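Let us practice reading a record.
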Amino acid sequence: LESGDINALLDLPIEKIDGTGASAKLAAAPADVVLNGIVGYAGLAATVAALKSDNAVALANKESLVAGGGWVMRLAQSTGKDLIPVDSEHSAIFQCLAGRSEEEVDEILLTASGGPFFGRTKAELAGTGPEAALKHPTWRMGPKITVDSATMMNKGLEAIEAHHLFGVSYDNIRVAVHRQSLVHGGVIFVDGSVILHAAFPDMRLPISYGILYPDRVNVGAKPIGFGDAQWTFEEPQSDVFRCLPLAVEAGERGGAYPVVLNAANEVAVRAFLDHGIEFLGIADVVEEVLEAVPDLGAMDNMEAIANADRWARVEAEKAVTQIR
């Protein structure tokens, strides 16, 4: 609604809900589609509630699949409802895969902006605080995801999400740093051809596609030009931005590891934003917690996932205290 139309809402039967479980209750209400844009692990319950209520889900909460993984995918498949990715990279890949069979696909491509620190060494990043990390070169995002972009944990979480969404092995997920942020993702096919999705960084595009799928509408986004376009692609600096390989390894190990990875990262990022640890300490905390994971059982229900999440947060707080 335009701001001048706000009075049109006054007479609607609007119910206000808050407190524990409010987002899940809202997601379970009958709807054509539920857009889940909650940040972090907190979004998992809403995704599960929406799917159990036979609602289609436009998913911007990547942690639903990082933590919920195969269990959430099986839940979506059992309902027959759409689970449409809204992350710009996964939306791009989803669109590139339209009408294609699994047998045709060799690899999928996740692009990364590289964040504000790409190209720097560990020595140059020593002592870096949150003020510098929050200056993203391309996207305007909240503080948590902006820090995840700077550490490249965001790309690691997206690799886990892509593995579950598209059924592609981790060996067939390629990450490339694309500083222009115009190519958002792509697919490499078995015949060697590549289809890329390109657009100016504008979240109206994946959001509208996720809500209106399979239709498209004009949302006012500016199309890219080709007269002087220059697109570059580089390998990520896995030795400096260790969160990316840590995330991929956690995804490959499966079980509780992705849940623990995500929880430890959320604790570490909060400590970083509160000036409790420095930038490089985020990966240190995550790595230390991952090295201590016990047998937490199968992650095939909400209780098991919640238990793993709680364990990881306690251990991550200990790790933060040790390196302060």
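A brief commentary: The chain has one domain: 21-323.
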